[in-house]
Automatic annotation (TrEMBL):
PROSITE patterns per record: GNAT
Keyword Transferase applies: yes
Family annotation (Gene3D superfamilies): 3.40.630.30
PANTHER family named in the record: ACETYLTRANSFERASE, N-ACETYLTRANSFERASE DOMAIN-CONTAINING PROTEIN
Organism from which the protein derives: Agromyces tropicus
Ranges of residues in domain N-acetyltransferase: 14-156
Name the record gives this protein: N-acetyltransferase domain-containing protein
Record key words, sorted: Acyltransferase, Transferase
Length: 156
């Protein structure tokens, strides 16, 4: 697959509305898998939705893209600044649909996201990855991301 076969298209309001429940369900489930209680995971979901999608639409300054392979919807990439200074940006979410995995699409989307962040004045790009997500951790390490913070837990 050529790099030109993968592109990032800004999501329309309708696409955001369809994507949001799916993405937030996945986020909430991942929080539970990482050790949050159901209540904690639901609260984290609500906080994210209130901060970034208060009216069901993404707030100004955040960028949510559909990852396309040809005309196919292969996933999504959401990135944006942490604050109004805009120097530190975050990859808030990256998802590649199962039927498109293991084809280098996430890697290409990440590289395109890095360029978008640079174009918007970012000098640092950060992300969070759940400890159980070995595949994502390997991808991010291969792209040059280093551990900036490490949360550890032990069930009692």
């Amino acid at each position: 697959m050529a790099d030109t076969d993968v592109r990032l298209d800004p999501m329309t309001d309708d696409e955001v509305a369809a994507w949001l429940p799916e993405a937030m369900d996945h986020y909430e489930q991942s929080r539970r898998e990482a050790g949050d209680t159901a209540e904690q995971a639901a609260a984290a979901r609500r906080a994210s939705e209130e901060r970034f999608f208060p009216d069901g639409r993404i707030v100004d300054g955040q960028l949510l893209h559909a990852i396309r392979v040809g005309d196919d919807d292969a996933g999504w990439l959401w990135l944006g600044p942490w604050d109004d200074l805009g120097e530190t940006w975050w990859i808030w979410d990256l998802g590649v649909r199962p039927e498109f995995r293991r084809r280098g699409i996430a890697r290409r989307a990440m590289r395109m996201g890095e360029e978008i962040a640079r174009e918007h004045g970012a000098t640092r790009l950060m992300l969070n990855v759940f400890g159980f997500n070995d595949g994502a951790i390997a991808l991010y390490e291969s792209l040059g991301y280093d551990v900036a913070s490490l949360h550890m837990a032990k069930p009692l």
